[in-house]
Amino acid sequence: LAGESAAAYACLVFVCLRDVVYVASAMRPYALATFFATAALLSLVRWLDAGRTQDGVMCAFLVTATVYAHVLFATTVFVHAAYFWLRRKEHPGLPVRFRSVLTAGFMVGVLLVPQLLNLRTLLQRPVSSLYLGQPSASGLLVSLAPPLLVGSVVLALLLSAMAGLHPLRGFRMPSHNGALLAMWIVIPPGVLFLGALLFMPGLFAERY
User: Fold this and answer.
1) How far apart (Å, rounded) are the C-alpha atoms in residues 208 and 133?
2) Cβ neighbours of residue 91 under 8 Å, at least 6 residues apart?
3) What are the CA-CA distances from residue 194 to residues 65, 88, 120 (Å)?
4) Which among 90, 95, 64 is positioned nearest to 77, based on CA atoms?
5) Contact status, residue 193 vs residue 135, Cβ threshold 8 Å
6) pLDDT digits (tens, 9 = 90+) for 158-186
7) Which pLDDT tens digit goes with each residue over 92-119?
8) For the whole model, what pTM was predicted?
9) Nearest-10 crossing angle of helices 53-69, 76-90
10) Alpha-carbon dihedral of residues 190, 40, 174, 50, nearest 10 degrees?
């Protein structure tokens, strides 16, 4: 979204985060779900840019794999829907038609039918056995902006400015890419937070 060099540095920072290292080393499904969710989003962007059918099919399969890896990552579907709506609003001549998106959604729905049984079993379990923590505004803020990550970025920018460097000079990002980045950060934890407030108090935990 922000260029190849920015992607390389972002990837380096991501794999060095404490929680990411822990999840990957523990071989928990979050690492696999994160991989599938990121690949699905990339397929969606490529599909909307080029309109190729194979990208749409790949996106549908990767979204399905994401939900099978971890059901909470189904919240990323809201990001896909919001991004498609934004792109369609900005560019009415988008190469991907609404009918094609509905077809992909139907494909995902069919592939997820076996997962419904697992979801039913999950919902029948006691709330206390699902996730720790109660929803709070501070927890949502920590989930949206992890202090360690934000502090590291601010410190890096300050050190760069003191050294006479200007890492953000000439930086440009298309508006829909910036919106996608914001939606990717806000929507999944926001959906879980609202779900915890309205339906299942133990659903949201800041570390997720």
Assistant:
1) 11
2) none
3) 24, 27, 20
4) 64
5) yes
6) 888 788 777 667 667 777 888 998 999 89
7) 888 999 999 999 999 999 999 888 877 7
8) 0.75
9) 150
10) -150
